[in-house]
Amino acid sequence: MEDVTDVAFRTLIARYGKPDVAFTEFTSADGLVRADEKGRRQLRKKLLYSDIERPIVAQLFSAKPEYMREASKMVAEMGFDGIDINMGCPVNEVVRQQCGAALIQNPALAREVIRAAKEGFYGSPTSPECPVSIKTRLGYNEDTLETWLPELLSENPSAITIHARTRKEMSDVAAHWERVHGRLKFETMCNTRCCTRRLLSAMEMSKISPMQE
């Protein structure tokens, strides 16, 4: 979460209530690649982490596959355990750049961005083992999860986090939890390689079994 989950916050949480995985604040891939040295130093502060947080995932956003590829390579070299692509931020400044939730309206580009992140981080745009996950929403102006989710799943992400509201709803209405519990066939995104303890626990509660290879 922007301006909340910085390294100090995450380290404190790791010491007193270790989560299964930690995520950085979301960071502009374009800025990491294009900014001048001063700008890059400022952005890199958002990517500071301590080993106590591991596994630690860098959350990036971009609508430019070439910048996502290069930024993903950077965070891999920095020692991160994975990348989370933000495709859910509803803020106008981000959406105007065709980033965040705007990618819900452009599935083809979203898939290119995912492949670029995999290629930059892992060296392969199609590897099912690459630790690239996605954060998104139910839809843009309306709930389109039935068509949007399969587009993401076709790229074999390691996990998908769904904010159970549309971009239009921002955070102004109650989350539609029924849309992400018991209705969707999440087993299509699960295999024995990528299921974390948290995901396995969630599947157990939801009576969902991971696919066997």
Provide key terms for this protein:
single chain; 8 helices; 213 residues; six-stranded parallel beta sheet; alpha/beta
Task: Describe, in plain words, how this protein is organized in 3D.
The radius of gyration is 16 Å and the shape is globular. It is of the alpha/beta class. The chain has helices at 7-16, 29-34, 37-45, 65-77, 92-95, 107-122, 145-153, 197-206, and strands at residues 22-23, 27-28, 56-61, 82-87, 132-139, 160-166. The longest helix has 16 residues, at 107-122. It has one domain (7-184): Alpha-Beta Barrel (TIM Barrel), CATH 3.20.20. Strands 1, 2, 3, 4, 5 and 6 form a six-stranded parallel β-sheet that branches. The protein contains eight helices and six strands, in the order αββααβαβααβαβα. Residues 185-213 have low confidence and may be disordered.
Low-pLDDT sequence parts:
185-213
Query: How many separate domains make up the residues?
Result: 1
In the CATH hierarchy, the architecture is: Alpha-Beta Barrel
CATH top level is: Alpha Beta
Strand content: 5-15%
